[in-house]
Specification:
Number of strands: 25
Strand content: 15-25%
Radius of gyration: 28 Å
CATH superfamily of the largest domain: Divalent-metal-dependent TIM barrel enzymes
Amino acid sequence: MKTSIATVSIAGDLPRKLAAISAAGFDGIEIFEQDFIAHDGGATDVGKMVRDHGLEILLFQPLRDFEGLPDPQRSRAFERAKRKFDVMNNLGTDLVLICSSVHPKALGGIDRAASDLAELGDIARAHGVRVGYEALAWGRYINDHRDAWEVVRRADHPTIGLIVDSFHTLGRKLSPDSLQSIPGDRIFFVQLADAPQIDMDLLYWSRHFRNMPGEGDLDVTAFLKAVAATGYDGPISLEIFNDQFRGGSPEMIACDGYRSLMALADDVEREAPHSRIGIQPMPERPRIERVEFIEFTADETSGAEFEQLLASLGFRLAAQHINKSVAVWQQGGIRIVINKDGNGFARACLKKHGLGVCDIGLRVDNANAAVDRATRLGAEPFHQPLNDGEMALPAIHAVSGSIMHLLDEPSGLSDVWDVEFKPVESGGDAGLLQTVDHIAQTMDYAEMLSWSLFYTAQFALNKRPVFDVVDPGGIVRSQVIEASDGSFRLTLNGADSKDTLAGQFIADRAASAVQHIAFSCADIFATAAVLEARGFEPLELPDNYYDDLAARFGFDDPEIQRLKQSGVLYDEDDQGAFYQIYSRPLAGGFFFEIVQRTGNYSGYGGPNAPFRTAAMKRLMRQEKP
């Protein structure tokens, strides 16, 4: 399988686009006509520049409003096509895309369109090029790939073939199964795009809201399976029109594109193993069994304050590293690692961001296979020099420069706690907190799709629809990524405005990061009482919040007073109830959460988020010097 991406999909001038696409691992490009025209070099120079980046020009696009025109527009369209064929010869590409016409003077009729394409086919053959015809979802007369195929079939010319695009099929809610009746050798090119399910004008939806396969709601997997069933074995390309992408990092978007394309191809190969997609099999998505550890970087001063907070939450110092100033604080099934070492990645994070999470360790079913899959999807392995007695633990660079370690039991990697750490006797387990319920990561909204794709392409995780959290300073968009059995839960929070609590957190740290960690407990009120005795100070909410709880859920006065005195927030759904206690925010806006789930409640207390955010911002303003 040759992988490709349209140059219109990413930001930057043409040289920067090519560099990003090449570095991401693509085989070729669709060169968008505007990118070529805007460049200050000729077609021959552009073709050489593309090849110097190790890429091929697999498609020149688009040639618009060609078929079904009356004269004099028809004659001009043929002359325009001839000139574009000359450009293609100089570029070094042999395939051009023709979109179905939206011209106001275009005439309908499949036979008329087929006749025009057949005549163009003779001209294309003389130039040594081919023509791919595509049905735009908003085409004036041809807006369905079945009709476009009928035009190509009737044109009956070897240089005229079909181009299919997942958006134009799935966006119109057409069944991709109808593609299976088309001979694979008559499909010249395949374009892919996903999109969130939005009820709006097709053209506007397409031009502004497309995204990478796996980032939206369209069944792109079913589309590519149907294409594979035809016997098609040509390029698979991404054509993404998205305002965020065209204003974002070309390097990040190109990497996302490659990751999405390879993950999709692997999914199709697994479901249709006899297809001709041609991808080398990669390990299946690993199952996350639990959060193995969360590592914070700190110096002596910030570390001491942080350890005090952990102690107030019932954590105990459990182990010390044999070589480094790295300590493990533990409670229940939770390990918090505090790294005060003067060298390595953690130290670099401390200098750049201050106290905070620098590494997340996940227990998976097969760590080495997980790293293999991640690197096949474009992730970069992470390595640090080892000292005596230390284990080589597989790790990858996650999104935005963070680190993720992957451990498992079968290979012995989970023995690292016995191999690299010496136990410390510092009292018994408080027995309050049980597991990491979920981790919340905050990023610029423009990066949110990248983070979502990173997790869902590489791990056996599901995503929920994005919902809006109202902050006094603006909207924060939140998305849940989780394992089906609840073994791993993550909330991604994308901030548009720096006036939101999430936006301030990013601005203070200059990077996307973990903003809060939620721990589970069995009895929220018993836990609250013990924590108070240990000196833990919960976040306080105003009386208005508890008055509203009473009105919404019918609580009597004693129950409301119980919630209020313990600093507990509450939510419920048809499946169960959810109790929350928040810590006060640390410098920079990081905080902890303690939760109790009853029944089968599977939410995250979303209705409480605006009130929690307002309370935290109010407290931070009061404490700001």
